[in-house]
Request: fold
Amino acid sequence: MTAPDAPGLRRRTQELLAAHPPATTGRTAFLRARFDAGLAWVHYPAGLGGLGAPRSLQPVVDAGLAAAGAPDNDPRRIGIGLGMAAPTLLGFGTDEQKQRFLRPLWTGEEVWCQLFSEPGAGSDLAALGTRAVRDGEDWVVDGQKVWTSSAHLARWAILIARTDPDVPKHRGISYFICDMTDPGVEVRPLRQITGEAEFNEVFLTGVRIPDTRRLGPVGEGWKVAQTTLMNERVSIGGARVPREGGMIGPVARTWRERPGLRTHDLHQRLLTLWVEAEVARLTGTRLRQQLVAGQPGPEGSGMKLAFARLNQEISGLEVELLGQEGLLYGDWTMRRPELVDFTGRDAGYRYLRSKGNSIEGGTSEVLLNIVAERVLGLPAEPRTDKDVAWKDLAR
Reply:
């Protein structure tokens, strides 16, 4: 089948709307129909929510559906599934796994989370100690994961665990799909500086995972995880936003609407950050255009670095601009939210929550090394543990 062009996608979009009018079709039914029509992510293969069309044509479909008032799949709520699990399933999943998981993932009927980080393996993720031991056709998993967004909502998780402690740390890891409703999975909230428990810690005790839910070969989970991590950094740092979207928007509006708060120093700092935010936005656009040619590369790490630094500097400027008002905090109520809402909250929330941007999705220190070595071509840092079996590492 020949991949459709822009006119062909517009025609298919109108056919979908005619067969399933948004005004009279339930949200889930419409999203399922959109997926089945190949208009979910047009660059995916036919039968998996796509049509094998160029990724750059997705906005053609999105614009047509938005103009007709069609529902979206609430991408912020299911960002881990869309941005991390889906491309990993596409790259390494079996045909059966793709057919089973991609449709309910995209429609939002099944929420996903990511079981990667551990108390002793955050920045050095490959040092993880959660074990998966083969038992017949199953793997028995024991360990602890931490900083798990959406674990309290998720049905499925992408999980990496150590399957061979006798080889160096990067070579003894395998990648699994974990059912969060299985016996032995315990989710506990982690209350943050914001007062909420957006993150969780997850304890895995004797959790049985069928070998049919393994992604990639045994022992090659680190390679699979790299696909997840590169896509994660693009989804965090390279999201599509309009001019003055994101964190720069609220502070720019406050500047325009409340001239009494202005000072010369704050003006200069705001101008600098506005320009940097716009440069980052345009760079994100260029990065998404590069994705048309294939999988994301290490450039996504640079975007995520910029995202974290800008969010922290902009939110700090906003608190200073508001003066005493900026020291107020709206609500310390303990909640377990479904998503992070930077722009819909007050300045105090933005300031506190942005502190985590330089940790989540890869610490800024690790990402600086990636940019230095893989983008700039600088010499790699010495790694004394590279050829040491994981079981012999000092912990």
Summary: The two ends are 55 Å apart (CA to CA).
